[in-house]
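Here is an idea for our session: we take a single protein and study its fold together. Start from the sequence, derive the backbone structure tokens from it, and show both lines together. Once you have written the record down, we can walk along the chain together:
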Amino acid sequence: MIESNLERIGLTGNVGKVYLACVALGPVPISRVIGHTALPKATVYDAIERLHGDGLVHVSSELRNRVVSAIDPSVLLEQHESRRQRLNETLPLLKALFHRAQGKPNIRFYEGSEGIETALWDSLSGDSAELLSCFSMEELSVHPGMDRIHDYLTERVQRNKLLKVVRTQSKDLYQVWPSSHRELREVRYTPPDMVLAMTFVIYGNSVALLSSSKECYGMVIDSEEYASLMRAMFAGIWQMCEPTPYVD
């Protein structure tokens, strides 16, 4: 029963046998584990090396009569939860690649403030050298917050991605992030009667949409046709907007 459950979480064959021996015997010389499992010495040492690398056992640093002891088995659950979290973070990207290969659109929906941040940072993925965007600074100052927006913009410059951004002056709570050659940013302002209350970023064949704080969600649409439509709409808005002077 225990062996089969360990196999399901990746501790298969001799590795599982050695791990069970370490748990059952407590801190003992490795020679005791070899005798308990009746496995070849090299096999036991290889298994212990893997278990040590996985953070499941501790091995003393003494050159002679080295002692091995199992870490509290609850670490298995912690590692499982950690892997599950990483998988949850990676799965939407894998699904996006899958749907893209199938020629189908893909929609990723993220709830809450963390969802807004996730969708925003996704716009830095891929190899697109130019981002076309509308920033509602009033909403972004709430979710994900000005500090995280600053981190995002800094990372964008480090990745050498040009940002063309439309903003609405009535939504600009702070006089920050003007047009800058050094920071790869060109800013234009909408006419007074055009208020854009949501944030979006177009990058490659994807569009990230960030809602207001009232609805509080982030969404990414992976679709060549939708991205092309949004790019055409952005071009029309861009032509209507007022250029701003570069600070450098």
About this structure: Residues 74-101 form the longest helix (28 residues).
